[in-house]
Amino acid sequence: MTRLRRPPRLGLPRLSARARAWLLALLCLLAGYLVATARQTLVRPPLVLGQDAVPPVGAAPADTSDTARVTLENVGGPAIRIRPAQGEGGTLLVFYPGGLVRPQAYEWLGRALAAQGVETLIPAFPLDLAVIQPNRADALIARYGKGKRVLVAGHSLGGAMAAGYAAEHAQALSGLILMAAYPAGNVSLREASLPTLSLLAERDGVAAPDAVRGGLERLPAGTTLTVVPGAVHAFFGRYGPQRNDGRPTVTRAQAEGDILRALTAFLARIPSASVQK
């Protein structure tokens, strides 16, 4: 009978007490970093009204308290509701924030649009990721959309989720607005007769301009593509610089003015008869 020989043991070098102490310290630092990173993702900052509403120097949009009423609502979860200072808006815009971006970063836009009779709802998502709850607009539209033109919009990942929502509810919507975003590869609105605006930041380093342009193939044939000159990905929301983004060649105030003008022109082309029943 042939005996099987044990494979030789691979010996590991013995560490000195000092080396073991350094290794333990490094492992503790790594564990602490991982815990801190996970906590930052799982525990989101508070939702604070007005925190990011102050306009940058020279900003064109009028976003002071006398042009809008801003409240925090709870309809299927927290949502910022921004209405005209007087009366009710004839247009409802449900805006999906970008990934890991707090809703208040887009409050500036809702305040500016309120002066034009637009009511904006910016929902908060679990972990600030619209992909977790893509149909969040359902409850908001059911509560506030009756008798109004209803549009969905979104920035970056929020825009992709808004496009997916629009693909399933095109007949009930009056329009779609994408900011530095495009539909997912398995989503197509090509056959939908839905007025659509796609905003592309010229210096965007996060949503590649070629990808945004390529997304037009999955959007309605009449989609309007508007390039925001010199702008970067982070100029759509007031949340500060973003990793891997491009370098802007204009001020944030200039970019916000261009964004607002593009939205105003787009909204003016949508028939007022297209309303929620």
List keywords for this structure.
single chain, 277 residues, alpha/beta, Rossmann fold, 6 helices, hydrolase activity, AB_hydrolase_fold, Alpha/beta hydrolase, AB_hydrolase_5, hydrolase
Could you please describe the fold and organization of this structure?
The chain is globular and about 85 Å long. It has 277 residues and is α/β, with parallel strands linked by helices. It starts with 16 loop residues before the first helix and ends in a 9-residue tail after the last helix. The chain has an eight-stranded mixed β-sheet, sandwiched between helices. Helix content is 28%, strand content 18%.
Write the layout of secondary structure elements.
Layout: H1 17-42, E1 68-74, E2 78-84, E3 91-96, H2 107-114, E4 118-123, H3 137-144, E5 149-155, H4 157-169, E6 175-179, E7 196-201, H5 209-214, E8 224-228, H6 252-268
Parallel strand pairs: 3-4, 3-5, 5-6, 6-7, 7-8
Antiparallel strand pairs: 1-2, 2-4
Task: Provide a brief overview of the structure.
With 277 residues, the chain is an alpha/beta fold. The protein is 28% helix and 18% strand.
Number of domains: 1
Strand order within the widest beta sheet: 1-2-4-3-5-6-7-8
Q: Specify the overall morphology.
A: globular
Span between N and C termini? Answer: 87 Å
Helix content: 25-40%
Return the CATH architecture.
Answer: 3-Layer(aba) Sandwich
What is the CATH superfamily label?
Alpha/Beta hydrolase fold, catalytic domain
Mean pLDDT: 87
CATH class value: Alpha Beta
Unreliable parts: 32-39, 60-64
